[in-house]
Amino acid sequence: MTTSRLVTPLGRRAVLDPTLALSPHGLTLAQRLGGLLELWVVRELWHILDNTYFYLHQPEQVFADALRCSPQQLIRALQQWERVRLETDLVGLKLHWIGDGVSESLLPEGTPPQLIAQTEALACALDQPQLLPALRDALALAAALGTAFILTHCHQDQPPAVCLALQRCGMTCQRLGVDDPLVVIERDQLQQLLVQAGLAKLLWSGLELAVLHLVVPDVSLPPTELTFLESFTPPNPWQSAQGFWYPLAVAP
Q1: Mind listing the pLDDT tens digit for each residue in 205-243?
Q2: Banded model confidence at residue 109, pLDDT cuts 50, 70, 90
Q3: Which of 88-102, 142-156, 196-210, 219-233 has the lowest mean pLDDT?
Q4: How many CA atoms lie within 13 A of 238 on its CB side?
Q5: What is the layout of strands, in order, in the sheet containing 95-96?
Q6: Which residues contact 151 (CB under 8 A, 6 or more apart)?
Q7: Measured by CB atoms within 10 angstroms of the end CB, which terminus of the chain is less buried, N or C?
Q8: Where along the chain do its domains lie?
Q9: Average pLDDT over every residue of 84-100
Q10: Structure confidence at residue 49 as a pLDDT band (50, 70, 90)
C-alpha cells in the first residue's frame, strides 16, 4: 500500500490500545488524533473487523476480561468501525498499521525496512496463552517503534488492562505520579493536543485516558538475532522489560 507523509507538531507517535479503539469513543479518538500525531493501530483490529458478523453475535469473545465497556457498546463500536471501513478510504483516517505483508501495511514515509520483521519477532517472543493477541500486537508494535507510547484507558483510576496483561506475563508495570517532573511536561503537551483535537468534552464526560511507556532493553537486537538458529534458545527481548503508566486526563 502507498506510504503516507505525516508531520506531527510534537513529533509524537502513539499506538492506539485496541480495547480503547473498540470502546464507545475509540473511533472518534482515531479520527481526531490521526492528523495530529503519528497514530498506529494493530493488525488484530482489522482481523476483528474481518469477522464482524461473528463478534456482533458474540461480543464477549472480543477482549474477554479486558473489555472496558458493555457488550452493547462494543457492538455499536464494531458497527461504526465497519461502516467507516466500508464507506470511506482508510488512508483518509491518517492511521498507520502493519498488516500481514508489506502490501497490506500503511507505513509513514521513511519507515525503516526492518520494522515489520522486528515487530513480528517481538510479537512471537510475547506470544503467551494469557495474553490477548490484540494486546500482544500493541505491545510489540510500541516496542518496535521505540519512541511510541500506548494510548490506553483506565477505569476508576485502576491500571489499564494492557498493564495487567504485562504483569500476568511476569513484567512490572509501575504507575507514575502526575507530579513527576517528566510526566508533568509530557502530560501537559498531550492534554493540549487533546484540546486541539476537540476531545476535551469526552474527558469531561468521563473518558479516562492513560499513557503507557515501555522499556524493552533488548529491542535493538536485529531480527536475525531475535529468531536465531532453531538449535539454540533465542534471547527473549521481553525478559527485563518494564512498563510505566500514568493517567492522562481523568474527569473530576
Answers
A1: 889 999 999 999 876 654 444 444 444 556 788 988 999
A2: confident
A3: 219-233
A4: 25
A5: 95-96, 38-40, 13-16, 149-153, 209-215, 242-249, 172-175
A6: 14, 15, 16, 17, 20, 29, 33, 39, 209, 210, 211, 248
A7: C
A8: 13-249
A9: 81
A10: confident
Q: How many residues does the chain have?
A: 252
Sequence-distant (6+) residues with CB within 8 A of 94 are 4, 6, 34, 35, 39
pLDDT at position 8 is 45
Helix (H), strand (E), coil (C) string for the chain? CCCECCCCCCCCEEEECHHHHCCCCHHHHHHHHCCCCEEECCHHHHHHHHCHHHHHHCHHHCCHHHCCCCHHHHHHHHHHHHHHHHHCCHHHHCEEECCCCHHHCECECCCCCCHHHHHHHHHHHCCCCCCCHHHHHHHHHHHHHCCCEEEEECECCECCHHHHHHHHCCCEEEECCCCCHHHHHHHHHHHHHHHHCCCHHHHHCCCCEEEEEEECHHHHCCHHHHHCCCCCCCCCCCCCCEEEEEEEECCC
